[in-house]
């Protein structure tokens, strides 16, 4: 199972523990070298993008859960 952590998309720093769910956050996995970019606040379909750490786009998803599940199959 891949461990994910929230990061602030503006700074790239780890998100604060008491961050609000209405603020956009990206997710990163250091061990699997994946990043999930959150565009769900501006896009209704395909708002979650699974990429590599280098920025290569793998696929777009409608939900965070679907993006995480697909990353599990690739790891």
How many distinct beta strands? 5
Number of domains: 1
Low-confidence stretches: none
| Shape, per Cα inertia axes | globular
**How far apart, in Å, are the first and last alpha carbons?**
9 Å
SSE string: EEEEEH
How is the largest sheet built, in terms of strand order? 1-2-3-4-5
Major sheet attributes = 5 strands, antiparallel
Strand content: 25-35%
Helix content: 10-25%
> How large is the count of helical segments?
1
| Radius of gyration, taken over Cα atoms and rounded to an integer in Å | 12 Å
> Structural class of the helix and strand makeup?
alpha+beta
* Overall average residue pLDDT: 87
Topology:
Elements: E1 5-7, E2 26-29, E3 34-38, E4 48-52, E5 57-61, H1 64-74
Antiparallel strand pairs: 1-2, 2-3, 3-4, 4-5
Notes on the structure:
- There is one protein chain.
- The protein is of the alpha+beta class and 75 residues long.
- The protein has one domain.
- It is built from one helix and five strands, in the order βββββα.
- The protein has one helix at 64-74, and strands at 5-7, 26-29, 34-38, 48-52, 57-61.
- Strands 1-2-3-4-5 form a five-stranded antiparallel β-sheet, with helices on one face.
- The longest helix is centred in the last third of the chain and has 11 residues, at 64-74.
- The chain starts with a strand and ends with a helix.
- The model has no long low-confidence stretch (mean pLDDT 87).
Record keyword descriptors for this entry:
about 15% helix, five-stranded antiparallel sheet, about 80 residues, globular
């Amino acid at each position: 199972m891949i461990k994910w952590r929230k990061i602030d998309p503006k700074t790239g720093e780890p998100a604060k523990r008491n961050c609000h769910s209405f603020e956009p956050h990206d997710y990163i996995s250091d061990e699997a070298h994946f990043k999930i970019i959150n565009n769900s606040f501006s896009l209704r379909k395909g708002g979650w993008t699974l990429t590599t750490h280098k920025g290569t786009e793998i696929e777009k998803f409608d939900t965070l859960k679907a993006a995480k599940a697909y990353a599990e199959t690739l790891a």
